[in-house]
Fold these 4 entries.
Entry 1:
Amino acid sequence: MSRVYNFSAGPAVLPEEVLKEAAEEMMDYKGTGMSVMEMSHRSKAYETIINEAEADLRDLLAIPDNYRVLFLQGGASQQFAMVPMNLFKNGVGDYIITGQWAKKAYQEAKLYGTANAVASSADKTFSYIPDVSDLPISEDADYVYICENNTIYGTKYKTLPDTKGKILVADLSSCFLSEPVDVSKYGLIFAGAQKNVGPAGVVIVIIREDLIREDVLKETPTMLRYKTHADAKSLYNTPPAYGIYICGKVFKWLKNLGGLEAMKKINEKKAAILYDFLDHSKMFHGTVVEKDRSLMNVPFVTGDEELDALFVKESKAAGLENLKGHRSVGGMRASIYNAMPVEGVEKLVSFMKDFEEQHTR
Ligand code: PLP
């Protein structure tokens, strides 16, 4: 068996320990004689799996008691609709546009009411996070929406916006569990699992209890109401059962590692290796303003499209996979999520050094 270093933005690398354990349990989960994939979501064994997953996640993030954890489906994109459908009272949401995912959420909200773009970094290809200290928040805004880590552009909020008392809603898909987060600062957090915590098909929602309402937009389907899933403890219908089981294993892996403070330190170390190299290279350049750099997604370019393409080709041959930048921006992007080992980043930098030497005349 040979595994590559996988720098994909998602679905992305998972901890090897988790994959090995899942493989060992594949045919017979803890003496049940069946795979978790084959197991009723109403069984005792599965109840333990989902309850433990929630308890471990609560531990990791120190989630306050007045927040509910929901394991849902439909990907992060479904939250773009569920957020306005469930949180609109006045029918107004304020959005900070820091990239394609924020923009998609903003456009989706417009289907259900008024979405205001209160700040944007579109003027410089989303290479920075706008000043969020004094935003023109709408008086009747039901919430302020951010995409906290911008997967495509490689930016991350280092301070949360001043929402002037409004509820903060945040898409944490690409930085979920990469560092500690003060959940109490948010009304709602959501994250697709397929970057930092598990397989695609699971989206995790952490929502303050008072925001789980009956009086949501009238047309909201039963399946798209937070209340439906909160009341049924994420078991209203068949959940993405196997995916939740893997997420649970990742939560345990994080706890064994020492929790999110420890994870953050490792992530900072990995990112520093790559950014330090980029800052000193004559060939490769990071594309993001230094203060807003993501620890998770690191886009870079040579400035020469042919050289970029050659780099992607040669790096793949060297066992460094998925370094091609997002189709909308080109260049390269290294996604170095929680499960990417330090050695993977060291190998990438060493490859970049060699490439630079070989292609500099
Ligand atoms: N939000 C962010 C920040 C993302 O990076 C992505 C996907 O890459 C999405 C939302 C969309 O996620 P999904 O494909 O699960 O709908």
Note: Residues 259-358 form a domain with the Aspartate Aminotransferase, domain 1 fold (CATH 3.90.1150.10).
Entry 2:
Amino acid sequence: MNLAKRVKALTPSSTLAITAKANALKAEGHDVIALGAGEPDFNTPIHIIEHAEKAMREGGTKYTPAGGLLQLKNSIVRKLQQDQQLEYDPSEVIVTTGAKHALYSLFQVLLDEGDEVIVPTPYWVSYPEQVKLAGGKPVLVEGKEENGFKITPDQLEKSISENTKAMIINSPSNPTGAIYSEEELEALGKVCVEHDILIVSDEIYEKLTYFGEKHTSIAQLSEEIKKRTMIINGVSKSHSMTGWRIGYAVGDRDIIQAMTNLASHSTSNPTSIAQYGAIAAYDGPQEPLQEMKEAFEGRLNKVYDELVQIPGFKCEKPKGAFYLFPNVTEAVRLTRFESVDKWVEAILEYEKVALVPGSGFGSPDNVRLSYATSLEVLEEALDRIRSFMEKHQ
Ligand code: PLP
């Protein structure tokens, strides 16, 4: 069958691809360590599970409104008020099947053929693909390694054309863990206001900031910026609920209404049971989040210190999310591989450690390692990488 043009150009998610490869090797009986996963290794806090169970027994198993339960929208509005001092009305919120689908729907309702979206590199793998699926054109702007992988207002200004409709900002970032400061966000926000561009602020790693760093939503910085910002967030990373598939978008009421109309013809609604779980996530105790964050911070300290000792690995210490994104060009050169992709393949083949090549994030000199796995496993992975480097030099 001849497939539609728009999906022929689609690149499969490199993170899911490497996880699939690692799983296939595991199924063959190999002892594989997968550092590709983008999800916390903790189980969902028990009070959330219990609340969802109760909802199921009490009949919360039916269709909900397409844009989500009003009770959950209210919880999200309260969360934004408490955490970011941002005021929204529930009509400015849509609950979606994960943050990924919030972004997908947003680009579907926003973009016409040829509209441009500014995507800073390194980017989360799905941004450019989702923009293209909606007929748009991703315009890549390099977040330079020497600038902590962040783009500057000057770069943003220069990448704007008459077709620019939106820009994406992801802080803390997947894959780099970089966090934009208030001043940096304000400067970028100003440019977007001047050019009347929508800011898509993906805040899915909001709760995972370390060493006293604090997350700021760009929407907090002025009323003018807030008017043009669509916040994307959800419970996947914050509450260790990746499989529940609950995310949300908050912003301009007309855009939210269009996304809701689209949902009414595509998903109908996010899973009812998971929505009840998300209510408990936002309204219930937040202590488990702190515990997870402390565990991640401890691992980051340990893994970072060891990683930068490996010959050829160059890495700034990330401040958020749960990834390290070292530049490995020197490691690849030392082991005489022709590219980072080939080197990553060899590490999986010889040492059974799955890393994600940076090419999928628009940054071919780097690899992404997730430290969302136990310290014991991380130590073993580092031993294997060290051993690979020794054997191949
Ligand atoms: N945005 C970023 C930057 C992510 O890393 C991810 C997940 O990996 C998502 C969005 C999607 O999150 P969800 O699981 O809620 O769809």
Note: Residues 207 and 238 are 6 Å apart (CA to CA).
Entry 3:
Amino acid sequence: VNVFYRPLEKINAVIETYPKGIAGFRSFLDLMATEPDIADAPEARPAPPLAGHVRFEGVSFGYTPGRPVLRDLDLAVAPGETVALVGPSGAGKTTICSLLPRFYEVEAGRITIDGIDIRQMTLASLRQQIGIVQQDVFLFAGSIRQNIAYGRLGADDAAILQAARRARLDTLIADLPEGLDTLIGERGVKLSGGQKQRLAIARIFLMNPPILILDEATSALDTETERAIQQALAELARGRTTLVIAHRLATIRDADRILVVTERGIAEQGSHAALLAADGAYARLHGAQMQAG
Ligand code: ATP
């Protein structure tokens, strides 16, 4: 399904309807950096190649004692399914996604992938199979080749160029006099926000993980760039178990399933059409978007 390729009119209005949480946006890298306690269990084994059957079973979690964010959450995502998480700021969408790569430890319940508790897998083997696309793109000073190959060290040029093509980055590379050898960063070419995002997407194509977490951008790029990125993301999600943290309803209409996450848990779930017909929380969010637009 073409989840991400959507016209972008009216989406800014939706963002405005979500109050800004005090925590605001935190990058997954930040999360990793602030969580030194998580380590391999003594009995942890490298995960086998995963199909991506994700299950949260009775999961409870909070960042501070006495302030639970998730209570007894149950969620099953089939291999290849795209599930979009929508809902008010602070409801726990990012938190749900942060638990899957084990940036935090569940307090109760468990998370399994293909039936294996993620605590039984080594962290490296778990995280190697979860691609994360977020707003903040981590680039280092070096060539475009090196920056894409960060997704799979040792990848050859053919694989790198194929990933770039699928990420809609190939025309940019072709236009640069030094192609893949073009240096970026401080002393090299400065990439635009949209180009950086496509570079990040190219990395994940190269990484080829069975599971994907997409933290959708809160602000729109120009329409042309946005369309290229949405197309690339739709292609990236195809065949992978995908969790989308959605800030804009317009981009997730074609998700296999939409979950409305509130402080009380999953309030509602279903397809876009089914949720509109149910005339509940999602329909209200959608109505607010239409009106605001
Ligand atoms: P948004 O749409 O704004 O991204 P969200 O639905 O993703 O919101 P979370 O970011 O998961 O919500 O936040 C859920 C709750 O946990 C909020 O009350 C938030 O303030 C709190 N929270 C999130 N991250 C942390 C953290 N690192 N430390 C303490 N509290 C946190």
Note: Residues 21-23, 63, 69, 87, 89-95 surround adenosine-5'-triphosphate (CB under 6 Å).
Entry 4:
Amino acid sequence: MANAPVQRMSQLMAKTLRDDPADAEVLSHKLLVRAGYVRRTAAGIWSWLPLGKKVLANIERVVREEMDAIGAQEVSLPALLPREPYDATGRWDEYGQELFRLKDRKGGDYLLGPTHEEIFTLLVKDQCTSYKDLPVVLYQIQTKFRDEARPRAGILRGREFLMKDSYSFDLDDEGLARSYALHRQAYQNIFERLGLDYRICAATAGAMGGSKSEEFLAPSEAGEDLFADCPNCDFAANTEAISYELKPVDGSAVPALEEIPTPDTPTIETLAASLGVPASATLKNLLVKVDGEIVAVGVPGDREVDMDKVEAHFAPAVVEMVTEADFAGRPDLVRGYVGPQGLGEKVKYIADPRVAPGTGWITGANKEHTHARNVVAGRDFEADEYVDVVVVQDGDPCPKCGTGLKLDRAIEIGHIFQLGRKYADALKLDVLGQNGKPVRVTMGSYGVGVSRAVAALAEQTADEHGLVWPKEVAPADVHVVAAGKALQTEVALDVSEKLAAAGVRVLVDDRAGVSPGVKFTDAELIGVPQILVAGRRAGEGVLELKDRKTGEREELTVEDAIARLT
Ligand code: ATP
Ligand code: MG
Ligand code: MG
Ligand code: MG
């Protein structure tokens, strides 16, 4: 590969900012904008500037190498997709408000792909006809579209974002298990190479359907997932994936299911009463604070609530999300999880995580129910929307060994699924088996949040001065700073050329009229792993090398610096 040319800051489109963007809530958002990596185009829609694009490309390269290594073949499918395959699997409707739907000039329905199970299934149906054609694993690195309800965390949750999605097609369960294991290992390699700290956690299948699924979660305060880690055994799970037997908060015995009355119009109060918990304990679907007071907005279904609508409904009162802190010292609050069921109907799930699925019924907001202050399903939100709140608490027993679980926030950076035959059944994907009879294909699907990984890395590695990239993803290997006058600039450019000739990726701050102090601050903000300064002693051929992460500095001759960096 040809050596990369030296990148000159004087020519680079990367304007650094001293102040955090006003709308930024999380560190990665602030730093990636301030360091000139990305710019916001609209809510949840981002432009990648030269430095950001380099980091993104490095992550793509690592993902590609590891996918290729397990025999996956790269393809590129469209993002603009016809409705029909998504009708066949039911996802045109099931996906709810997150799906971007659009019409063409003839009135035909289309969508912008949020994930591509249907389209890959049809591709394989077209291309693979015999058992000899399987197994096959296909992948793409592609822009995905999801109309996220709260795209508030910068690159972490885009409405347009880059995902590596892959799909495996096998003849039998053993084959699927093998493809799944290969991906699991590839993902470990990817995240280790990227320098991300992560845990593999049991997960629920969500909108994808299917059986086994695991998430790769990167511990971070900025994360929107909560996972439980057992300090004693290997158990780790997204709290969404943990369910317990019913255990009222006062510790009393659990009523048998048949003893739980099921009134015609179940309400939160009647359910709470039947479970022997205070009415205010409220087995709620969505908890929000309205002017500081916790209220429930019943929103059953398998969807995210449209917070804008809830906010509009309560206006001018201030609506905020309930956080972990709101539960502290409030044993009367039971944290609830609601299954994907209709409003106020008798259903398979109960609005409490401590009940195994398939055993009870839920409540929902309805017109008579004031706790919800007259929020009406169908008017204020789709009747089948819901948001699940926290389901497991710190110290709850590990389902495997009983030890108290430790809860941490995390960013979901990858997710692997054994789908089984859900999509193959819906779209009739068969191949001819060895005995001449058709065999229904079994599938897996696997995603890495490529753009999200940029932000997750920033969250995990940044310090108070700015970004700190691991070498594999950094936009350059060394950031050369010309700290002084013409002489320093000359030395800096000269050493930059020599480093580049030796294959080192160099960013050089050759800007005229910018003070050394500003250049140092910018170098720290931008986060290239090594900073090489041509300063006071440049005339004697002595430079200073600083490790961005450890802050260690040392003076070196130009020759030694080049030897060290190559
Ligand atoms: P989340 O729970 O964060 O909404 P998800 O479970 O809906 O994510 P998947 O359908 O499992 O996401 O997609 C695979 C991967 O794509 C995720 O593990 C995540 O890394 C990434 N991803 C999903 N949604 C987004 C988004 N809005 N912005 C950036 N990356 C995303
Ligand atoms: Mg999602
Ligand atoms: Mg998820
Ligand atoms: Mg997921």
Note: Residues 173-194 form the longest helix (22 residues).
